[in-house]
Design brief:
Blueprint (H helix, E strand, L loop, with lengths): L4 E10 L2 E10 L4 E5 L6 H9 L6 E9 L2 E2 L10 E5 L10 H6 L8 H14 L15 H14 L4 E5 L7 H17 L4 E4 L3 H7 L3 E3 L6
Helix pairs in contact: 3-4, 4-5
């Protein structure tokens, strides 16, 4: 099977009531946008992909990532990155320490410091490694959360309404930054959103749960 994120006959139900039915391929650099009203199961689909589906839900089908069936793999071995509406930075750690949390173990201290500095430079936050996350703006926190996730070297990226807490101008900026970096790394992206502008900016297929493809 080719590289990418492949959802094979995925069906999720709760209490015997069908919620989601998805069969779709997301190739490297592509974005699939999933839309629909609250409660229709958008975030539940992401939970199935990450291996964190809550008790009470039942699911069938398979998740393949870069030729590997990860349907039953533990979450930490799926190599799937996810961004949420909240940045979820650790308040007791500096910006640099937050980024270090995303790095794979085994590298030297100097290599880790270099990669953290490069990541901050990439998003215009050079010199911010020692800053307290509480002193950052919303946009700066979003950039740190993005780079922390990318430093974990995911093979796919999930977006769970990550732009909805930002004002319009900042939303456009951060959204472009996320998509540009995902495409530069050839990551397949699945985005959950309520916002039609997010879907338009993604420039990919759109699945409306409870609706149809566009």
């Amino acid at each position: 099977m080719d590289d990418g994120l492949f959802l094979r006959d995925v069906e999720i139900s709760k209490g015997g009531v069908p919620l989601i039915s998805v069969h779709h391929d997301i190739k490297p650099g592509e974005v699939l946008t999933v839309m629909g009203p609250s409660g229709v199961g958008k975030s539940t689909l992401l939970a199935f992909i990450t291996g964190t589906l809550a008790a009470g839900f039942t699911a069938t089908g398979e998740v393949w990532l870069d030729g590997h069936n990860v349907t039953h793999a533990p979450p930490h071995k799926r190599h799937v990155g996810i961004l949420f509406q909240d940045d979820l930075l650790f308040p007791h750690l500096s910006v640099g320490a937050n980024l270090a949390f995303g790095l794979q173990p085994g590298s030297t201290a100097s290599d880790r410091q270099k990669r953290i500095a490069e990541a901050l430079d990439e998003v215009g936050l050079g010199g911010f490694a020692d800053r307290d996350p509480a002193t950052l703006s919303g946009g700066q926190k979003a950039r740190v959360a993005l780079m922390r996730m990318l430093l974990s070297e995911p093979c796919a990226l999930l977006l769970d309404e990550p732009f909805s807490g930002l004002d319009a101008a900042l939303r456009t900026q951060i959204r472009s930054m996320v998509f540009d970096r995902a495409r530069a790394r050839s990551l397949p992206v699945l985005m959950v959103t309520h916002d039609a502008e997010d879907a338009e900016a993604a420039a990919g297929a759109v699945l409306e749960l409870g609706g149809s493809w566009s």
